[in-house]
Amino acid sequence: MDTPTSTSDLIAAVSNELTPTERRIAEEVLSEPTLLAFGTVSDLASRVGTSRPSIVRFANKLGFDGYTKLQKHVRSDFSHQLAKPSERIRHGERKIPPARTAISGAIASVFTALEGGQLAELAAPLVKAETVWILSGETSQAGARAFQSGLSMVRSGVRSLEEHSYGTQLSDAGSNDAAIVFDFFRYRRQVTKAAQVFADAGVTVVAITDSPLSPLVDLADVWCEIEVPAVGPFDSSVPVVAIAELLVSQVARDLQDDATARIDRIEAIWEQTEVFI
Questions:
Q1: Among 184, 202, 212, 245, which has the highest number of CB atoms less than 10 A from its own CB?
Q2: Could you tell me the pTM of the whole model?
């Protein structure tokens, strides 16, 4: 899997085409890359002493359709540079933004990704499927578990795929099923292989990942791109849990009376067996 072209390489490729103002922007971006990655257009414009349209034109010059697309590229570049937890510990103070800034940006990316009916499109196969399979990489397990817990409350036939039993579980999957797959850079080989088996079996694959370059994209019937920032040495689970909860909420709305009836049955059993003090 190729990593994104670095911001410095993008700037170098067009250096002869930059105006004096754009050169000042480039110098500022290269000296303080976190400003571009996590600041607003106004933040960068104020720092350089130029206008917002000049920042947008700079992004266009680098080949991006607006500042937001350039910002997403730079954030991805950071993640790939510091893919290993040890590298994040070693260099994190210089390259990783404050946790509050990183998580806020990632949560915003979730809501942006789900605009324009995308949430309903992602949820639709999870409503109609006979069985919903859940597959996850290591760093996305918190989101996968939150999704399994919530989805199991509103519909039956929810199964989490475990690596030690891939053979027996994957053999049960069929064309009336759907699979939701969570995985992010660095992509797990076994997750991609299992997703391929689902696709080959006619299972509708829903992928939650972090880049159009993710190996899951080619296997998915519908997919969604979100940001997964570093918090300390490890990837944050917060945006993955957030999208999992939003998907469960959408499925519950779509199932309506069926979801309500199932929750009522579960609550009755909990009461009968005195689950809660």
A1: 184
A2: 0.70
